[in-house]
Structures are given as C-alpha cells and as structure tokens.
From TrEMBL:
It comes from the Bacteria. PANTHER family: NAD(P)H NITROREDUCTASE YDGI-RELATED, NITROREDUCTASE. Its cofactor is FMN. Pfam families: Nitroreductase (PF00881). This is Nitroreductase family protein. The lineage of its organism: Bacteria, Pseudomonadati, Bacteroidota, Flavobacteriia, Flavobacteriales. Keywords: Flavoprotein, FMN, Oxidoreductase.
Amino acid sequence: MWKEVRLLLRGTYRIISGLNGFAYDFKRFLFYGGWRENLSDMEIRNYNTVMAYHGLEKSLSFKNRNPTSGWGNAERVFLRLKIAKMAGDYGYHDKAAKQVLMKFLSLPENIELEKSRKMILEMNSMEFDSDDVHGAILYPLSNYKMGILKHPEDFFLSRYSLREFREDIVPQEQIKRALKLAMKTPSVCNRQAWHVFHSNDSSIIKKALSYQNGNRPFGDKIPNLMIVTTDLKAFFAGSEHYQHWIDGGLLSMSIMYALHSLGIASCPLNWSQTPKRDKQLRKAINISPNQTVIMMIAAGYPKDVNKVCSSTRRPLEEIFSNIELK
C-alpha cells in the first residue's frame, strides 16, 4: 500500500518537475530565440543568412544542377547583405554569404541575366569580404580516403570516460586545437550556433561544478573544464525547439573524440538540471542568457595506470533494425 503511494507520489513529482522544465525552456525560446527574425541584430541576421547561403552552397555542389534553381535563396541572401551594408557591422556569415552569392551569380547560366548584373554591381560596393573559401569545391576520393583508419576499433573502443587525471593542466593551445577539429561537426543549415567556455582555474572550475550533480568524488581534481552551449538566436521555427540540444550534443561528442585523438582524456558531465540550478550557474558564470547550456566536459591527461568503468555496450541487435514500411 505505502509502496504504491510512494511510487505514485514520485511519479507525480517527476511530472511536475518536467512541466516546470518545459515551461522554463519555452520561456527561454520565447525571450531569446530568433523567431522574430530581427535582421538588425547581427547575430540573428548571420544565423538567418547562413540558412539561405547554405542552400546556395548545396545548389552549387551538384554536378548536374537545375540551372533555374537557387534564386529564392539568392534574393534572401542579397536582402540580408544590403541590411548588413546599411548597418555597417559585418559578421563571419555576412562575408561568407557575399562570396557564395557572387559565385552563384557568376554561373554561366546566370551571369548574363539583368538581375545578376544589378546584384553584382551593388555587391561590389559592399566593403567586406571573406578570406576563407565558400560555395562548393572539388573533393577527390583520395581526400576521403585520408580519413580511413586502418583499425578504427582501436580509436573508438579505446576511449573511456576518465574521472581521475594527472595534475598537469592541458595547455589552452591543445584545447583550441581539439575545438578546431570538432568544428567539422555538422549542424542544421551549417549554422554552427555553438560556444565553448573553458577554464583551467581551479576556483572557477569548483564554482561551476558546484551546480552540477555527479562530479563530487573527483570534481576538485579536474584540470580543465569546458561548458558547451548553443545560441537560441540561431533557431527560428517552432519545429526547431529541440534543435539546439541536437547540435550541441553533436559538437560535445566531437570534442571528446578530438581530445582523445590528441591523447587527452575527458568525461562528459550531464546538465539536465532544474531551472533553479540553470539560473544559479548563469548568475555565477558569465554566460549570455541566449546561450543554452548543453553539458560540461572535464578534460585532463590520463595517468600511467587508470581505472575506469567497464560500461559494456548493449548487443547490436537490441538497437538495430532495418527500415520497414507499415
């Protein structure tokens, strides 16, 4: 009897806590999401622009492209470039968009069109350019083969979450190198709405970890800590209300594999927290309100001999099925 009552009370508490969390997430999307498409905000404009110019990049990447395709995105990009010119503040995606649009307008099927000439003429007066290469590039099979591992199992199966590290702090240059590798992570429409906060200051790490559950036996000995976030300004449609979690999760795993490739151990630290804890962390750590905290990652060098959880994996047949129609 009492056991059933306890289970019922526990279940009710979980439902109420869930509703509280959903309401908090909705409120944050309402206040900080990009759904208003305020293009005078450089960050929102850049996320909005990359959605359009990435569509052009995909059009340019097809060997047998439809010669009439892409104009809807081209006009969207052009409008946003004009706004950037008027505002006088240019972000990375503004500069990339200009280069991609110029390549699109310069296609043989487009270059002689009156609307192309008008756009090119106006874009030539926009005094911002990108130093990187955007659009589409030829990528031979030999380049793909560079990524083939002779024994991929040796890499993937040798990574474990480590909770006891050497005392040495990982140099920030190595952390940044891992992040550059992880930045190849795909994201929705290539928006790359990520931010990574890093510290090797023990007092800052201690403060941040005081709001995270599960680090208490080892948190005071973590040499490096990262907090992975995604920017709500990058997400516009209501259907994207979970996308920031997806993109942030993808980057987080890439970071841990990148660290592993450099001989640096890591441990993911869950941030499925209550609204109260989330607010407490933001009050203590300078994280913009539009940034959603995805997770924390502890990092450090492994010792000569380490003890880890075996954490065996479920049989493949339990998680694999062929796609079938109903």
